[in-house]
Amino acid sequence: MEFIDGVKLSRIDDDGRPHDKRGIAHAIVEAWYRMVFEDGLFHADPHPGNLLVLPGDRLALLDYGLVGRVPPTVQDTLALLTIGISMKDVGGLARLIYKVGTPEDRVSMSGFRQEIQGLLDRYLNLDLRDIDTGSLIAELLDVALRHRIKVRSEYALLAKAGGTIEG
Hints:
Helix content: 40-55%
Strand content: 5-15%
Radius of gyration: 18 Å
């Protein structure tokens, strides 16, 4: 344990110093992707109280009481999921989620694809800045659960933490 001199992200407007908020946001997203795709270990509770802004608008993450692991197979799946969403590949997304999940019963793939299509139609007709990717991923996981496909807990934890980072 050591003292880190900084300002909680949630309080940077109150500390009287100018901050490059866009640069801070960029650093947060970069740190998130580095944790998930390079380190394979991520801070699973990255709320603003656990992020400090240090002099020079550098970041410090606090309280690693909740972390998640991202094995290479999950990293690959996340990359394919991202590509599938960006390409609006409904069939590919359905197959990928089915493949990485554990179906509890027979799955109607046509119904599953239809729900994914509706979800993508709702989100991907928005401007990029208006898309809440954390919610999109969480809703994809909900669609899987409705179709009785259990998805590994790493994905749920990633979706929760990713949504917090995006916020």
